Amino acid sequence: MAHSGEQADNPPPKVRPRELRVVSDDAYADWRTVYEDNVDRIHRLMFAKVGNRADAEDLTAEVFLAALGPARLDRSIGEVRAYLLATARTVLARHWRTTMGREITTIDDDQIEAVRQDDPVSDAPQRAAAILDELPERDRRILSLRFLQAYSIKDAAVALGVTVANAKVLQHRALRRAAQLGGGRA
Amino acid sequence: MSVRRFVEDLLRGRRTRGFRPDDEEAAQMRAAIELRAGRAGSGAASEEFVADLRRRLATDLDEDDADAVVPIRSGRRRVLQFGSVAAAGLAVGAVAARAASTPADVAEGPLVPNDGTWTRVAASTDLPDGGVRGFDVDGVTGFVRRDGGQVAAVSGICTHQGCALRLDAPARELRCPCHRTSFAVNGTLVSHQLPTPPRALPTLSVREADGGIEVLAPPP
Lengths: 186, 220
Hints:
The structure holds two protein chains of two kinds.
Chain A: H1 31-50, H2 53-67, H3 77-100, H4 109-116, H5 124-133, H6 137-148, H7 153-160, H8 164-182
Helix pairs in contact in A: 1-2, 1-3, 2-3, 3-4, 6-8, 7-8
Chain B: H1 2-12, H2 23-37, H3 47-61, H4 75-81, H5 83-86, H6 90-100, E1 117-123, E2 132-137, E3 140-147, E4 150-155, E5 166-168, E6 173-175, E7 182-184, E8 189-191, E9 203-204, E10 206-209, E11 212-217
Antiparallel strand pairs in B: 1-11, 2-3, 3-4, 4-9, 5-6, 6-7, 7-8, 10-11
Helix pairs in contact in B: 1-2
C-alpha cells in the first residue's frame, strides 16, 4: 500500500472491505468521499453507544457538520479518520453530559483504533450475548425477546405466558440484574 | 421511573429524553444500550439518513460552487438546518437564547464552575511563549496560550451553536467549522457570517503549578 511515510503512528490499512470507495491511499479526493467512506462507520459506532437510531443519527450528523470543512482535505485518510473519531468522542461526551449530566457510554482508544484500521467494529452481538449468558433463564428470555428480537411487551408477555404487567416487572428486574453484572462497564 | 422511560424510548427507537441518573440507573442504561445494540443488523446507517445528511452537507460545503443554486440563508434557515443538533440538549438551547439577548461583543465573563478543581491540561514545557494548545478535559474544552510569559485560556466551544472550535495556529485564530465564525486566540470575535454577531468566548481560570498548566474545571 502506498501509504506515505509521514504517518509513523498510523499502521498501514489492512485489506480494504468492498464498500470502501477511495481512489487514493494517501488522501480523500473531496469531502463527499470522506463522507461516503465514513458515514456508516461513524453511525455504527454511535448506535453501539446510544442504542437507538434517532439519537445515533443526530450524533452522526453532528460529527460531520462539525468536522467536515473544506480546508481539511490535504490530510491523509488516517488523519481525517482520526479527526472524525476524535470529534465523535467529543460529540458523544457532550450529548451525555447535556442530557444526563454524566457520561453513560464513551468511545475508548481501542475502538478508535479499530475503526481507523477498518477492523469490524461490531462486537455488539457478542457483548449482548455475554450479558445474557450470565443471567438466569427467566431474565435471559425476557431481555432477549424485548431487546434482541424486537417483541412488543404484549407479545413478550404472551410468549412467556404472563400478564403484561408481569412482563414489565420481569423486564425491569432482569435489566437491574444485568446492570449489576455489567458493573461500571462503559 | 426515568430509567424505564429511557428503556421504553430505546426499544421504540425514539429519541431518548434527559434526566439525572444515579450510578445504578446509569448501569441499567448501559446494559440496555448494549443489549439493544446487539440486535442483529441494527447499527447500519439507513439510506435515507445518508442521503439526507449528504444534502445538508452539500448546502453547507458546496456554497462556493458557482453552478450550484445557493439559497440566501437567513439566520432562521440556519437555525432550522442545524435544528436537530441544537436540540441535542436543553443547555444548548439555553445558551442560544441567552446569546440573543446579550450584546454581541460582551463576553460571558470568566467561566468559573461551582466546586471547580484545578485540572492539568498540559506540561509547562509544551507551551512555549506565543504557543497555543487545545485541551479537552472532563467537562471543559478549550485552548490555553502563553503570551509574554503569562498563561491564559478560553473556552473551545463556539458561542453561536456550540460546535467545537479548531485552532488555526498560523493565523492564531479559533475557527468554527459549522458557520465559519472565527475568534482570536484570546476569545474576541474576528469574523462571522451570522445575522447577529456571536459573543466572545468565555475565559477560563488557569494557573501554572508543578511544571504543569491547570485550568479550573468542573469536578470529574
